[in-house]
Amino acid sequence: xxxxxxxxxxxxxxPDLLDDIQEQSCLTPYGEMTYVSGxxxxxEIVFMTRHGKQHSIPPHRINYRANIYGLKRLGxxxxxxxxxxxxxxLEVRPGEMMIPDQFLDFTHARPSTFFDGQPLPVAxxxxxxxxxxxxxxxxxxxxxxxEVPFHETGTYVCTEGPRFETAAEVRMFHQLGGDIVGMxxxxxxxxxxxxxxxxxxxxxxxxxxxxxxPTPLTHRExxxxxxxxxxxxxxxxxxxxxxxxxxxxxxxxxxxxxxxxFQVQA
Length: 266
Hints:
11 strands, Rossmann fold, 11-stranded mixed beta sheet
């Protein structure tokens, strides 16, 4: 039976949708991860706040390996992650959502693999389809039924942060095919695939990127934009909890089969 986890990004904190909530922690070879477990209509759900409850962890210092490894150890098989993003062009508007199907990685100082020879062997995961098509379709169906404006495909550009991007960078990202820009999706999605977990991202466009918008961007604006859409997120998460398939299959479940699969240490 599959087990679902929600990773909440900036401004997305909805463990209150669950019953029997318990705040817990899990030790991993990469450090400790904290999470909330609870139930929705009898189904166990795991909820993790990526930046911590007080938004105290910047994107470049998130312990992505501990978070993903810990979820795997808890028996999670599917992850839906939320992200706050900027748009690189006028066709993707603030207030809309996107379900990315590709990414461009512009991070440079983050541990990005479990398979580095210690203790897992050196391996090379296929990322031609980085996001689970089954979970992406689940998100798309929910957004359609709730009549939320969204883009069914798109390319997420992940930067190192914590600074926002320059106008020149945003122009470059758009020319390279990037539609939205954020700071947290990589290596999170890559690690989830290495751990053979289905993973999809729901991105909320909070603003136009530098140079697209005539005004400077502040973090407060991003948080306020996410809070304004809190009701829509709650409705969508509730829909997902009700429609998640306990017996779903995903190509991600066999992503490391060539290397004997992903093994969690006892």
